[in-house]
Structure formats: structure tokens, C-alpha cells
Amino acid sequence: MSASAKKRIMREYTECMKDTPAGMKINFDEQNMTKWEVLMDGPEGSVYAGGHFKLEIIFPNEYPFKPPVVSFRTKIYHPNVSNDDKGSMCLGLLRPDEWKPPNKVVAVLRLIQSLMVEPNIDDAIEPSIGNEYKENRKEFEKSAKDWVKRYAK
Amino acid sequence: MAVAGDDERTEELETLQSIYPELVLDAPFAAHIHLPVAPTIPLPVSFEPVQEVHRIAYLPPLRLEVDLPAEYPAEAPPKVNLSTSPSWLPPATAEILEKKAHALWEEYSGEQVLFAYVSHLQEAAETAFGLSELTLPDTVQTELLEYSKRMKRELFDKETFDCEVCLEPKKGSVCYRMERCNHVFCVQCLQDYLNNCIEEGDVNNVKCMSTDCGKPMPNGKKKERLLSPKELLQIPLSLQAVERYATIKRKKKIEADPTIIYCPRSWCQGAMRTDKYPKIDDVREMDHSDSEAEVPMEASPEEQPTAAGPEKRFVGVTGMDRLAVCEDCTLAFCKVCLASWHGDFVRCEPRDKNQLTEEDQASLNYIMKNTSPCPTCSVPCQKSYGCNHMTCFQCKSHFCYLCGAWLLPENPYAHFSNPGNRGCYNRLMDLAEGDMVEGQAQFGGARGAEQMADFWEHEAMRIQNELNAQDS
């Protein structure tokens, strides 16, 4: 990774520290700054409220010309998060063809927070969960809350 | 006669010099100053013979010369002379401005007026002295345009910009302003980004990095323009990188065009000659910046081999002209049988696939086994990771990696959530870690299914043969 890329990550971290979005904690290791661990609280009022989710952000070598790779390390029942042991996400800003270098990690974190309040059904990576959200909201909420209790406490 | 030191004129010129340090004293009571002319709205200027109108933001400065007679200020007005070099200010305008000195002196009834006059000129310069347009002889064109450009650059150099990519404040002298959209980035970040795109062959991303760039189109997507080779050289990128960019961009267009046939000589493999994609001769002159969405050029009629030659004879279907000429080695060959040109009257046999070299066969086999073709442009795609909703690297089509079906760009995932699509239902994330797990192709997408079908067909044949052998 180039020195300028490291410098930019460092700057973004400093900015994040000055103005951390509510309900988040960022663990940063200066020795390995290309991998951030973020602890995100389920937003109040959402089905994930009360849960604590661990996320991993990996910066590619070409950062910021390529998007960071985000994954949920805590299992979450959500149409936009893959329902496997990877918890990967692949939408909006995070898609390589939509990412632009001035985008920042903070924007990514805010996107994730807003997706927890309202999933993006049109871009569901888990279509079955997306369908359930659309057609059987009660069932969806039950499973989501159940998973929070099971995995995110 | 008063001593210079006590003179009111000396006092006034000294005061003026402390306000405008650029004021130059030419004699005890004479001075000159250059006043910048940067109208708030750039002045439309055309040069004879009129071809195009240039909007000039910085005109060469106005030179004001003042000469204060002994009777000034009480009994005589200041003598002023206005000029520009090269001369662009119309004499009539200069005269009006010069008369203003007299008018001001009268208005001030014999008081010192130089400061008021200079302020007046400065104010008038902001509106280009009331000029709405200007026509000048073309002898001054280069000088005026160069001057404006140089001033722009000098002012830009002194400014400070926050580069949105490295997030650092940078002096204008190490920044670049994009020609079309005016976004500013530091040269280092632009070079890193663009060189990276060009190196990876991702020429469709050679465009402005800004998030709010590109005009929104009716379908909600943004239409962004690729940067022209000429602009890339200004940033500057190396000539070598820009040449690579232009070459790849052209190659992609040729590859996406199914009507283009390649030279059969294995050491050449150049594309056939066509007017549709002119060869690149000098990237420094290429200032067009086509967008990805641009409509391809209309096919142009083939060149006649010799202008005076016999009339073109059509063989078979009209327009089915089999003669092609390689643009690299100039071999004339037949588009159908790929043999060297045999004339119109020879019937050519379809190619025999055994003619492929071993190497070609091996790579063809690999492609057949391990890739899915894009349904639009047939470029072979291989998934490295992620879901089975693919976007073609070349033509941006959305398609399903498993079955090769086109997907709706607005809702590509519907394909995977429709139980009717038995093959793909709920399989969006199949093999998300990529085809090449531990170096072994696990699943070859659409073509993989064909391979499996072939395999089982062979297997069935083998079993049948075995059974037949047992029976006999």
C-alpha cells in the first residue's frame, strides 16, 4: 500500500475520532491500519435495537481508488447482508462501479446505519429475506429480533 | 516656485504610492500605473476575420499616465493618458475615460482627485468599461489569449484547494482543474488514480473523480465523459500511459464490434482495416472525449481497392464483401475462410477447427471450461468473487453468471428470487468466493453446465458401450 493511501486512512480515522457517528465505536490498530473493526449498535427504533454488531472494514491496496470491503462479523438477519459466515455486503457505494475516490468510510458507515433502519429491498443480496420483508413484515421482524437475541447481545 | 518637498502634488503622489505600491514615478510630478482588467463577466472578444468568440477573463492591464501641471490641483485638471499594450481598448472608450478625470476634478472643485480617479477606473474595469463585446485584428489574438491564460494560471497557482482524495490542502500550483466540470484535484492523486485505471485496462473509469460529476440522465444514471488524451497530457500523465489509454480504448471498441475480423497470420492478429476506428497517430492531437454511452459510428462503405479499377462485383448476398485487409501487416485475406485473398469467384470452405494451433486450442478449451460469456458482447467473464449478478467489464450489461441471462439493471436480483427460474432461484451467492477455489475451477458458470452435459453424455456413451461389450 502506498504512503499516500496510508496517510488518507490515517486522516479518515482522525476525522472519525473527532466526529464519530452516534452508536459506533471504531477499533483501530496502527500496526495494521488497513483493517478496521467497528462496533455498531442497532439503531433505536429499528428491529436491531439493543443489538451490538461487529463489522470489519478492509481497505484494498488501491484505496481510495477502490472501495473498502465491508462485512458483518456478527450474524444479522437482513436483506442486504449475505446470510452466511461471511456477512458480506455489495450495494450502493460499495460496488466498485459506483465507488468514487472522494467517498469516505464515514459515508459507508452511515449507509449501513440507514440500511439497518430501512433495508434496500431492490438491491437485496438475500432475495428470500427481501421478499419476506416486503410480504410478511411480521415474520421478518420476528426472525430479525430473534437473531439479535441469539447473536448480537 | 515651490520646493518639490512642500508641493501638494508630491504629497498626493506619495500618498497614492503608499496605497498602490506598483505606482511608478517618472518625474517629480509625473507617474504611471498598470491597472488589472478582469471583468466580473468575461468579455466576449472576436478576432478578425471573425471565426469564433472567445470569452476573455483577464485583459492586458490598462496603463494610466498622469502628469500634474504646476497649477494642479487648484487651477488646472491633471493630464491623463490611457493606453493598453497590445492595444485593445477602443480609442472612443479611452477618450471617455480620460474625460472623466476632468469631470472629477471639476466635481471636487480643485481638490486632489488622483485616488478618486484610480478608484473610478478600477470600478469601470469590473464591467469592462461598459463594453459588451469587442472585435480586434487577429494580430493581437495570440497575445491576448496567452495573457488571459497566464493570469488564470497565476491566480490558480496562488489559491489553496482541499483535494477531496488525499484530504489535504494543496496549493493551486500542484493542482489541476478539470476542463469540462471545473473540479479540482491535486495532480498527485489524479496521476495515481488515472495511471492505475490505465494500467489495469479499466479505461472506462478514466474520468473525473468527483462524486457529483456527470449529468444525470433520464434513467437516473449519470452520463459521464471519458477524459480526452489531450487533457490527460495536460494533467500531466506520461505520453506512454496516454498512448496505452488511447490504444486500449480503440481496441475495446474494435473488440465489441462483431463485424471486425482479425488477421489470420498468427504472428500478427491485427484487426482488419476499417474507417470506423481510425488508427491512432498522435495522441497529443486527440481532444475528443467520448462517453461510454456514445452511439457507435455508422458503418462506412469499404474503400475501393483502386479507384480506377473495375466496378465492384458483389458475390452472394449484397454487401457480403469477403475481402479484408489487415491494418497492421496489410495482408489481404478472405473474411470467411481466412485464407489469403483468393478473388471473388472462389468458393471458400468453412474453416476446419483442427487448423487451430495447440496453444490456441488450449486457451479456447480453458475459456470454454472456465468462463461465462457476456450475453451482449460475448467477452468471456470469470468471476473472482461476489454474487452471481455480474456487470460486464466491457459493455456494462447486467447478467446472471449461472445461466447467462440478461438481468434488468433496475432490479437484477429479481432473477434470483423468482422460483420459476429453477436453475438460479436462491443461488445468488453460490460460489461467492469465486470459481477458482484452491486453483481448481469449481464451477464454470453457464458454460460449466454445458461441460457437465457433455461429460454425462460421454459417460452415458461409455456405460452403454460397456454394457454392449458385456452383452456380446
UniProtKB/TrEMBL annotation, chain A:
Keywords, ordered alphabetically: ATP-binding, Nucleotide-binding, Transferase, Ubl conjugation pathway
UniProt-recorded Gene Ontology molecular function terms: ATP binding; ubiquitin conjugating enzyme activity
Record-linked SMART domains: UBCc
InterPro entries xref list: Ub_conjugating_enzyme (IPR050113), UBC (IPR000608), UBQ-conjugating_enzyme/RWD (IPR016135)
Gene3D superfamilies the record matches: Ubiquitin Conjugating Enzyme
Stretches assigned to the UBC core domain: 4-153
Name this polypeptide is given: E2 ubiquitin-conjugating enzyme
Enzyme class per UniProt: transferase
Catalytic activity, EC: 2.3.2.23
One Pfam family it belongs to: UQ_con
From TrEMBL, chain B:
Keyword Transferase: yes
Positions of the RWD domain: 11-128
SMART domains tied to this protein: IBR, RWD
Top-rank taxon, per record: Eukaryota
A GO biological-process term: protein ubiquitination
Enzyme Commission identifier(s): 2.3.2.31
Catalyzed reactions: [E2 ubiquitin-conjugating enzyme]-S-ubiquitinyl-L-cysteine + [acceptor protein]-L-lysine = [E2 ubiquitin-conjugating enzyme]-L-cysteine + [acceptor protein]-N(6)-ubiquitinyl-L-lysine
Location of the RING-type domain: 159-428, 163-197
GO molecular function: ubiquitin protein ligase activity; zinc ion binding
Gene3D superfamilies assigned: 1.20.120.1750, Ubiquitin Conjugating Enzyme, Zinc/RING finger domain, C3HC4 (zinc finger)
Pathway entry: Protein modification; protein ubiquitination
Keywords: Metal-binding, Repeat, Transferase, Ubl conjugation pathway, Zinc, Zinc-finger
Location of the region described as Disordered in the Swiss-Prot/TrEMBL record: 285-310
Family to which the UniProt record says this protein belongs: Belongs to the RBR family. RNF14 subfamily.
The protein, known as: RBR-type E3 ubiquitin transferase
Source organism phylogeny: Eukaryota, Fungi, Dikarya, Ascomycota, Pezizomycotina
